[in-house]
Amino acid sequence: MDTTNINIEELSTADLKRLTAAANETIESRRSEEQAGAMGQIKALVDDNDLDIQSVMDFLSPKPVKTRKSNGTPKANVSKSPPKYRHTESGATWTGKGRKPEWIKSSTNPEQYLIPEAERTSTPAVKPVKAPKASKAETVNETPEADPTTSAGE
């Protein structure tokens, strides 16, 4: 079929189908050639700029949107509450919402940790750093020794 000057109104259904198939093949062939050329350009840019593939992929991949588990709708950007309590020894803070930290639970007077209203800011709460756990071998074979800096009554 000669496709140089075609009046598609005069073509039969079979000729239109053949023309469509030929056009789709040409489109796919050109798309493949263009993609190969683009990939060559990308590879040259990566090589010329000493980039690694993972950093390029991280840059190109979309960031996940936080959604609610219940219905999948996006979560609103809600600012965190300012801390209301601060542990005097570790510097850990708690907003007064959610699960109580151990230092509040074990305290007979949690009000002692209240941060004055004027000092409260909207900075996120600081979590205390936990000491690494000892292995089973270390805990089975060791006996606790008295700390010479503390008295026996503490």
What does this molecule look like?
The protein is mostly helical and 154 residues long. Among the domains are: 10-60; 85-129, no CATH class. Helices cover 35% and strands 3% of the residues. It has 4 helices and 2 strands; from the N terminus they run ααββαα. The chain has a two-stranded antiparallel ribbon.
Summarize the entry for a quick read.
The chain has 154 residues and is mainly alpha-helical. Helix content is 35%, strand content 3%.
Which properties best describe this structure?
mainly alpha, elongated, 154 residues, 35% helix
Mean pLDDT: 79
The assembly state of the depicted protein chains is: single chain
Q: Can you summarize the main beta sheet? A: 2 strands, antiparallel
Q: Outline, from the CA principal axes?
A: elongated
Major sheet: arrangement of strands: 1-2
Give the ordered list of helices and strands: HHEEHH
Number of strands: 2
Name the beta content range. Answer: under 5%
Tally of helical segments: 4
Distance between the termini: 100 Å
Task: Map the helices and strands.
Layout (H helix, E strand, L loop, with lengths): L12 H36 L4 H8 L24 E2 L6 E2 L7 H4 L30 H6 L13
Antiparallel strand pairs: 1-2
